[in-house]
Amino acid sequence: MDRSSTQPDDAFAGEARGELSPRTARALWWGSAGLVLAVLGTSVLVAGAEHGRRLPVAAALVLTQACALWWQARAPVAVLTVNAVTGLAVWTLLPAVSLTGALLAAQIALCVLSATRPRRVSVGALAAMCLPAPLAFGAGGPAGLAVYLLTVVLAWTAGQWRRAQQARTRAEMRRAVVEERARIAREVHDVVAHTLSVMVVQAGAADDVFTERPEQARQALRAIETGARSALGELRLLLRAFRPDTGEDGAGKQREPGPSLARLDELADTVRATGMSVRVHREGATDGLPAAVDLAAYRIVQEALTNTLRHAAGADEVSVRVTAEGACVEVTVVDNGRASQGGSAVAGAGRGLLGMRERARLVGGSLRAGPLPAGGFEVAARLPVERAS
What we know:
The protein is α+β, with helices and mostly antiparallel strands and 389 residues long. The protein has 14 helices and seven strands. The longest helix is centred in the middle third of the chain and has 77 residues, at 133-209.
């Protein structure tokens, strides 16, 4: 199972929900407060040089704005209100400072509010920030009005852009979770469906020979027990995939190896126990394959054998060929049965074939399945190794 897309850390998840982590909030404050002090603070010092008594008050208001930005991530509406009021006060004390510059801290708070709060709240804040527009027109004419409205709208738009980014991140996270759950569902289906199919066949065989050949019936029952234990073990492996990889389970025992081509003979033995003849042929080394390709190849063989047991009427022989070349792995499963009428394996639209095709696609490969002209059914997959690596 591909576990490359694991759960994000807490900070990333918080930002995806529209919240800011403490580290990001601190960085935002340092940047925004520094910008306010550099731009507005310099303007106040220059404009207040001729108003000695007003300069200390205006400077204190600028410091108030910079300090208020510390809470902009947690209470952007309140910070916007404080900075708007103090900005207007600075502009009243020092008219030489432009209204756009005096309300710089309020514009920053508007941007953060637009990014982290619902649209109806941010639209109301945008409308409130447009109220001083007549003052900008009176002080700077049409140019002053245009500059003020442009900066306010840009601040709100920047917040909306950030909010859209957060929405895309949340959508990607949800999609990743859905895909992971789908992969897990296929894993569970493959394990349970194959084992139960074998157990059903074995149980039927045991019932047929229970009186005449009790020893053979016992062998079938033991095979059923072994298959059930194997299925439970693989289900435990799937559940452990959600736990931290400590290398050992809670009982201190090493984890059992997961499904792979190295266990292909074990898989073939479970099918042979039903009376089916299974031939396995390997070409090339498969022990160094990427885990995703190894698991996909094993599951394709497993599902193909399961479909043979279910749908290939009259089949008594199946051959499995695994060829590992340098760039890809080819898997071919062929049986000699007659496909049942209306069987999903024939149409190629059943859950089993869809699952096999999806597994091949997830590792960048392809799969074809269908009846052969001379009889029998073939499943052939080509799985690239380099792409999975």
